Amino acid sequence: MQVSMQQLIYLTAQVRDRELEAAESLCVSAAQLMHRAAQSCLAALERVHPAPGRVMILCGPGNNGGDGWVLARLAREHGYQVQVVAAEPKTELAKQAALAWEAEQGSVEPLAQLDRTHVAEYDIIVDAMLGTGLSRDLDEMYCRAVNILNDAKHYHKLWVLSIDCPTGLQSDRGVAIPVAVEADYTVTLVALKPGLLTAEAARYVGHLELAELGISASFRHLEQPFATIIERDEVARHLPPRSRSSHKGSHGHVVIIGGAPGMSGAVVLAGRAALRAGAGKVSVLTHPDSHAIVASAQPELMVSTSKAESQAELTEFISRASVVVLGPGLGQKSWGRKLSEWVLAADVPVVLDADGLNALAQQPSWAQRQAPLWLTPHPGEAARLLATDTHQLEQDRWLAVQQIAARYQAYILLKGAGSLCVDKAASSIRVCSRGTPALAVGGAGDVLSGIAGSLVAQGVVADEVLPCAAWLHAVAGEHAAIAGERGTLPSDLMEPLRKLVNP
């Protein structure tokens, strides 16, 4: 299947090292490439805020600043009132672009003297300060500029466009070092970078547009992508139309284990999601105190109980399952811990979530098994799996997801804005660029684990289960939140989910 540049993600160094080589192979000079970058930014500007308008362009010392200098000339030619505020240009291309602006009597003010009051006089701010050229924490001048810009954006409703990457955002890891421009729109150049798609990216990047600058075909021949974005067509390919002669046994049997006292809702949500995602049969094994609640919540669920007294009895119960989803509402008391140990010792595929993950973090040796294992941690659970803290883990989510896969020899989905999926060999990384803050609510993860279990049961290939589940969960959340992000419930995802699994 042909994959477009809109799905391919490259490390910043890959783009920096190869973009000029790709351009030169097509007889495109570095100056022409800079002009194309500025043209792409102008096109974005005109789509969202057509002229006339007052535009302030903040230019840094390198080629990102050079893009800003060229944009200043183009924007003025197209009817905008333009003010450049700049650091001294250092690269040859930036110097040439600055001279061209000054030769046309363009106005320039020093970036070091950026003033809050002056910024507030403009409608649009273009951030062309550092882009992807950030290798260390911002110095005092740039921290000050970023803070002034962000304050003006919030208090005066300015629209902010960042070129290539918001200044201060680390373009591979997606973290602010220590602050970053909160852009409304980012035009990234040549290829997508990892830090624009996960971690804190959603806060800073705004709408993300890729400008390939006419060199993508050549660039693709020079570098292998670091990761890819999950797209609808891929998900649909793994959910083909059903045979007219199929029956419930054709679509797998999911067993969900969890629902300690007071947490019965978790297995209900996971069970409903497994059904709505298309599993033929769904059983729930829950705590005796939760049986009545779970059994009355969804008549299609087959509900049994366990006191966790017999490993042999549990092994027999799950032996006929296509997959076990272990963890929703499991709790961390002896009941849940025993079930975790026994399930992971059995020769059955397992999707592990919630307190199942916490049990595994305490006993990593339980992951040494022949049957496949899928883990779906949020950052806190992922940190426990790596024996670190959440802050440290979030400093490099890309590295963390690979480390978890390597340590546990499992397929991993690291949840969050820009969920990351990796196969158990840690060789293929996928990112889900869809989703909504409406999913930031208790129970959303239980829905995701139910979807994942359902896909396993239906025979989706092992390394595609979590990418497909992440996409279905994220997009179902988007649809459910159309009426408003606040107050959207995980149970609201069920009907959109049903539609999405029937492409």
From TrEMBL:
GO terms for molecular function: ADP-dependent NAD(P)H-hydrate dehydratase activity; ATP binding; metal ion binding; NAD(P)HX epimerase activity. The keyword tRNA-binding does not apply. Pfam families: Carb_kinase, YjeF_N. Residues 15-221 form the YjeF N-terminal domain. Its cofactor is K(+); Mg(2+). It catalyses: (6S)-NADHX + ADP = AMP + phosphate + NADH + H(+); (6R)-NADHX = (6S)-NADHX; (6S)-NADPHX + ADP = AMP + phosphate + NADPH + H(+); (6R)-NADPHX = (6S)-NADPHX. Binds 1 potassium ion per subunit. (6S)-NADPHX binds at residues 63-67, 131-137, 142, 164, 266, 329, 378, 446. Signal peptide: none annotated. One of its GO terms (biological process) is metabolite repair. The keyword Nucleotide-binding applies. Residues 231-503 form the YjeF C-terminal domain. Keywords: ATP-binding, Isomerase, Lyase, Metal-binding, Multifunctional enzyme, NAD, NADP, Nucleotide-binding, Potassium. Homotetramer. Catalyzes the dehydration of the S-form of NAD(P)HX at the expense of ADP, which is converted to AMP. Together with NAD(P)HX epimerase, which catalyzes the epimerization of the S- and R-forms, the enzyme allows the repair of both epimers of NAD(P)HX, a damaged form of NAD(P)H that is a result of enzymatic or heat-dependent hydration. This is Bifunctional NAD(P)H-hydrate repair enzyme. It comes from Pseudidiomarina piscicola. The lineage of its organism: Bacteria, Pseudomonadati, Pseudomonadota, Gammaproteobacteria, Alteromonadales. The gene is nnr.
